[in-house]
What does this fold into?
Amino acid sequence: MRKHLTWIFDLDNTLHDATPHIFPHINRSMTAYLREHLALDEDQASALRVHYWKTYGATLLGLMRHHGTDPQHFLQQTHQFPNLARMVVSESGLRHALRRLPGRKVLFSNAPQHYARAVLDLLRIADLFDAFYSVEQTRYQPKPLSGGFRLLLARERLVPERSVLVEDSLINLRTARRLGMKTVWVTRERRSPGWVDAKVASVLVLPRISSSLGWRR
It folds into this structure.
């Protein structure tokens, strides 16, 4: 009898490399949004964006808590990509690796739905996911807040101990671990905390390590 794990994937810097083009674009867009809607200069807006991101794990959460920002308006305005196809950097073999990975696959991203779905389509892997949770589907409770995690686990009827979060962010992985989930850190860092179950440089190696995370034939 097979005991499959459920793989819960982050999107940016996990399934594709957002660092070269996408993150700089989002950062500029968010800074411009704060500058315009909070009447700040460039330096103030940039500093506040970073402060909210470091404090809450998502700039959006700080804006909602302290300024009553409409999350839909913010996400729509800051995630516009006229040339998204040229900005997505991916690894060849991604689709093949995900197809080889046993168990259900769920996307769990702090990004808005329109952007996340567009990236999955460009990566040609949208059909491989059984469920999809963007920040809207978690009722604007972005990672690392536990509320979004609990909502996903409840809706998908998942047992935390049989669920694996695959992420590039340690703070998000820490929440998953506290809830009893397994953790895979996607990073090129040499060291990792003892509570991380596995560290990989690329999701392409996941099929090779799935047995070490508890999957058995």
